[in-house]
User: Fold these one by one.
Assistant:
Number 1:
Amino acid sequence: MKKIFKKTTLPLASVVFMSLLVVMTVLMYACKKPTDGINILVDSQSLSPAPTMISFVNADSTSVNQPGDFAVSITGPGASLVQMVSGGTTFQVSHGILSLSLVKGTVPSLTNPVIFTVTAQVAGFAPFIQNVTITQDAPSLYVVKALDYTTSAAGTTLLKSSTALTGGTVSSALTLTTPTNTNMTENAKIAFTAGTQLQDGNKNAINAGTLTSNIVQLGVGNNALTEDFPGGLYAADALDQNGAAISGGVNFVPAGLLSISMTADGNTVKNFSKPVNVTVELNSNMNNFATGTALKVGDALPYWSQNDVTGQWKYEGNATVALDGSNKLSVVMPITHLSNWMCGWFWSATSTAGATFTACGSNLTVNLTTADANFKGGNYTVYLLSAYGNIVASKKGGDLHNGSSVTFKNVPNIPGQGKVAVYYKGKSVAVSSLFATCSTPTLNITVPTTATAFADPVNVKLNITGLCNGKQVSVLPSAPFQLYQQIAGTQAFQPVGVVNIVNGVASTQLENNAVYYLGTYYNKTYYQTGNFTITKAAITIPPLTGFNVVTAYDAGSNTLSFTGTIPVPCN
Amino acid sequence: MAPNASTISTNLPHHWSFQLEGGTQGVGGDLRYGAFQRTSFRLGASFIPVTANNALSLPGFQSTNAINVNFYNIHLLADMVPFKGARGIRVVAGAAYLYKADGGLNVTPTGSYTYGSTTVTGTDIGNLDMNVSWKGIAPYLGLGLFRSFPSHLFNFNLDLGTYYMSQPKTHIIGTGLLSDNYQLEPQFNENLKEYRWLPVLQLNFNFKLK
């Protein structure tokens, strides 16, 4: 038995055993490593709450001169709670895009809003000012209409002038008059008396030989006064005539505005030794917001100045409506400093001298329903109007979709009633019936399909991943991406909305056969896709700035899926 | 010393034995019955709970990780002697029901990361659990070395073989900033789809009952 065991059993067992081991070894080596291709995904949404895109575009949509790359300042009570959407407080605009968010852990609300102001000085444009009020952790979009010193947008007029000085002094009486045009039938006159000394921000005399003036006047045409109003119609940190803060801020109902920029031999002019009378003509079709009747001689009109560095408005006093030399309704504002001056009514959350009326102390939420429940479009604006059509307040929304909503805080106690109008793509698409502003907490408005629908829509889904070079980690970005569409018949593109990427994912709807591109400024880098034409098939998008996208089309759901990667630094 | 070489029994039928076993599939016990001249059956159970810390690395992601493996099975095996003259060699076939067969990788971030001016710590980032399950019926094929039954009270023998488990199912659960890692499940499934072989190298201690 022992002999058999050794000569027969053991060798056979050994052969089988070795064979088994070889097979098992081969099988194990055939397997992939469990972590092959596994990149840990890191969400970013909670690190950047309330993503806010501020898009700087030329107020003249046909202009090729667009704001590009520049630094901005963030001021105001909530400034310390603001960061770039990818972190950091070096506030930089790239390709006209500023992507902001609140810092981690900030929870904005209606009762505890985050309020700040974005300002910038860019050569060739009037100062950029945008007031931002964030009341919820949701994406938002602000479009700053840049007033160009080379061309005037519809509803505005531009005066560029050069005047000889004597030692920085206007030697003889000088009147600068803005031109009129078909969309801007009112002019403005800036009248210097002889001997007016130009001064800098510290009221030091400027010794210069030439005064260079860039003056942009905004009128009611093309809604320029409300659409292009520097900073927005709500001023949270406005000051009264004594320089004290007006509790709750004010809301403007403007009648005319001048953005005045002057330099003397390159030195910025901020003050004058003598008052300079600024006469602003008013549109005769305008209603007096306070009375609801046609504007007439003798009406009182408050006027305000704005600090273009901080964006802060200050109530300067009341002017009286009179007829000017051209027999047009006008007001005269005696000014001693620059740069933005505005005449118009205002209302306030609290009783303030000069305010047309006060607020109810309640909020109004406007809920939007799109007749096409699947519709997802670009940004929209909701206006709160007086019964006689003055714009009392406005709220800019993000992407218009079924379920969009905006909330007006401290709605005004309008004598009579108010109404709400929804604007999309620059047109009024829905208007509410009149309602009592103080007893209406919510309004439900349906936006009709005809106002929103694409002729041939394609659903678009996006999945964007930020790749950390050399690491098994990927960041799922949360940032607004600006969507640009080619203007039909031209090579030019214009921003048409924002796609809010949340943890790498977003969905929207685009027009079949239209040409688009996406861009954003994230992690100190500008990312842009190549131009792409929407089709009902997979498309090839040329990579640009490291933003690589591949697509796939699902005919059943009419969905074009974009899967993109961007390189991101990961520390 | 050759195992029990001098006390070989030639008759399998109607023998009963109990074996304690230990090996790559864990520890357990079997009740063995000699049904025919050259065939016996085993019914038993075994289990293996294993924990290993920091066995894997994820480059660029500072973390600790713990791997937990639990294989609990009930098995029914047939031992067949193919060569009459070589009773020390058995072909073993059968199946097990893996009523608990899972592996879990728990990843806990340890580093701090800079997000702009914000420092994000491991606590903020969250945890990641990557779980794999092979639960189900797994056929077994192997080779038994040395005799099934002791002639007297005790012997030992070896099992060499493998279970072929069902294709693993993965489930990834993340918390905090890692919540979206469920998206990795398809890749994790792909990586593990060939991990179906559970090799068995097992030493059995047999105690004759009858």
Note: Chain B touches chain A through 49 residues (CB under 8 Å).
Number 2:
Amino acid sequence: MKFLVAVDGSKESDRAIDHAAEIADAAGGTLTVVNSVDPDVYDTGGSEPVAGLSGAERRLVVESVADAEERGERLLEDAVERARETGVDAASELLYGNPVETIPDVAATDGYDGVFVGHRGLSDEHERVLGSVAKGLVERSTVPVTVVR
Amino acid sequence: MYQTILVPTDGSAGASAALDEAIALAEKFDATIHSLNVVDVGAVQPEAGAVDLVESFERMGEETTDAAVTRAEDAGVSAEGHVTTGTAHRAITEYVADHDIDLVVMGTHGRTGLERYLLGSVTEKVVRTVDVPVLTVRAPADEEEDGAGDSESLDGAE
């Protein structure tokens, strides 16, 4: 059996790793931790007036994606280490795009048996504003999703 | 680890897919399955005959949970069934706390629009309110545009 864990560096995602590792260990399975770099988030120019230095503007966006990639790689390294400490076989994969779309796609295409994701337990109001990756995965994934608090 | 797994059921295709997943897990972890049917008394108007109606819903709930228990036991998994009254997600949350549940397994419909809102909202609320992990399973019929699963899940939701 092989499982995916969606990680974002939060406490909740650490708990999802711990839980998934426990289950994978007991089931004799392996884990793959994934983080999805979402360039959309960095596409907005913000409220600053554009000074006409379009080159600099582009550079800022490019650097942001590079930062996000670096952050993603770091998160994944920590996550793999965390999972391996429990004795389970773990790998990582950096994805690009909206996690709510990329993670279910990978889970289905690569034949995973389950997806684990943390949930912050936000109030209704917060969730309506911020959305929730967990909720999006539950809605979209054809592979079973375990939401961990 | 999973020792006691709760599978709320409304007799729908989603709940059936959830039960299959729960049975597979219970086999692996030697866990016990609790099948729970909630009779939503809020949906019954307080009129003459309401008591009869609740009683007949309870009987239907018992049939549904009995069938789930039989399916689990046929797979060699120990199981028990319960029927309770209340609002579905609240009753499920209380049951989790009162029975030391380690995992809740529920179906999702994965459809868009009103239908998902109506049918999937219990799962969504449980995901938000329960402290233990919630495993959500998509009903296989959802992958087709339209299928036999429709009438089944509507029967269950009625």
Note: The radius of gyration of chain B is 15 Å.
